[in-house]
């Protein structure tokens, strides 16, 4: 039996069109990622050999690194390997980039996953409470915390958390990482401070969006009609208002994935965690073009795919958006 193709006007058709539109975007991103190696100062072959290499060693290294070929040929070769997950070998460590990414990915994935979960729960709860008490004392108090969360820098917040919860109280370790297989409890304790550091800003931003959307929706005629029928405020928000107010907030929340990728570089460096952020920063410091290319491409693909998922979720919440998509 031949599987039916998704209807052009349905959600499946919209997703298919979005996937096809991603192809040229990802090609452009791959060109930009590859071009970073051309813009880095110095010769990668010389950097890989260390101090005082001979001319013969440099020539051999350039041939091994494919640097003796024109840039378009190197790009095609690099892209052909990259789509299979082969990002080459690190210039500074001589280790396969793919294996290094696989080793460090669980660290960053755990931080990012729990950050999104914590930010989502806190943002929705704070936003709902603010909307229910709009203009009153609870709303004003929470508004102060939201404003603080939007303005405090990551590195400063991390320093404060370490000074209070790690140094003074001793509740959590200040630096380091423990694998889940070694000790689940220590693994969780090492994640708390980095996750809180990264979750504060997106939680505050989500709370602001949820409050704004709910305040507008709660003033709509159909919400007044629901109240006149005797429905409780919790049921009105959970079944009717929050669904209609979540669209813009969901879009903003999806855009925060790029913030997480950038913030992980700072946070993993502060807390000395062996994740992809620390790996990227180390590659930048060492001018390791192979690793930089791989991380830029992977980060861009993640952001594009997450935004696609956000668009799909938005269209599922609001079918009217599919018509314009």
Provide a descriptive summary of the structure in words:
This protein is mainly α and 325 residues long. The chain has a domain of 190 residues: MetI-like (MetI-like fold), CATH 1.10.3720. The longest helix has 38 residues. It is globular and about 85 Å long. The two termini are 30 Å apart. The N terminus is likely disordered.
What's the gist of this structure?
This protein is mainly α and 325 residues long.
Please outline the major beta sheet: none
Output mean pLDDT. 79
Q: What order do the SSEs take from the amino end to the carboxyl end, as H and E?
A: HHHHHHHHHHHHH
Oligomer: single chain
What structural class is derived from the secondary structure elements?
Answer: mainly alpha
CATH architecture designation of the domain at 97-286: Orthogonal Bundle
CATH topology of the domain at 97-286: MetI-like fold
CATH superfamily of the domain at 97-286: MetI-like
What is the number of strand segments? 0
Low-confidence spans: 1-8
Specify the CATH class of the domain at 97-286: Mainly Alpha
Helix content: over 70%
Number of helices: 13
Shape: globular
Strand content: under 5%
End-to-end CA span: 30 Å
Rg over C-alpha atoms, rounded to the nearest angstrom: 24 Å
């Amino acid at each position: 039996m031949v599987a039916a193709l998704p209807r052009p006007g349905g959600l499946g058709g919209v997703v298919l069109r979005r996937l096809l539109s991603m192809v040229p975007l990802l090609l452009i991103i791959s060109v930009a990622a590859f071009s970073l190696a051309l813009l880095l100062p110095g010769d990668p072959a010389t950097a890989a050999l260390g101090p005082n290499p001979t001319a013969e060693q440099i020539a051999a290294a350039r041939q091994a690194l494919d640097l003796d070929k024109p840039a378009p040929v190197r790009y095609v070769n690099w892209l052909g390997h990259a789509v299979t997950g082969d990002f080459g070998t690190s210039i500074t460590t001589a280790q396969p980039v793919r294996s290094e990414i696989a080793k460090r990915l669980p660290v960053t994935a755990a931080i990012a996953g729990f950050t999104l979960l914590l930010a989502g729960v806190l943002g929705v709860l704070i936003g709902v409470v603010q909307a229910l008490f709009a203009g009153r004392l609870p709303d004003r108090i929470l508004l102060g915390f939201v404003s603080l969360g939007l303005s405090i820098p990551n590195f400063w917040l991390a320093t404060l958390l370490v000074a209070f919860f790690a140094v003074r109280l001793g509740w959590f370790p200040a630096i380091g990482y423990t694998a889940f297989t070694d000790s689940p409890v220590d693994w969780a304790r090492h994640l708390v401070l980095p996750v809180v550091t990264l979750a504060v800003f997106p939680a505050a931003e989500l709370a602001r969006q949820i409050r704004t959307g709910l305040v507008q929706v709660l003033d709509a005629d159909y919400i007044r009609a629901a109240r006149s029928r005797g429905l409780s405020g919790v049921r009105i928000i959970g079944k009717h208002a929050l669904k209609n107010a979540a669209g813009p907030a969901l879009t903003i929340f999806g855009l925060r994935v790029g913030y997480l990728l950038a913030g992980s570089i700072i946070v993993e460096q502060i807390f000395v965690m062996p994740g992809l952020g620390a790996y990227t920063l180390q590659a930048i410091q060492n001018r390791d073009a192979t690793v930089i290319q791989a991380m830029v491409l992977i980060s861009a693909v993640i952001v594009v795919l997450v935004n696609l998922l956000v668009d799909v979720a938005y269209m599922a919440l609001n079918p009217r958006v599919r018509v314009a998509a």
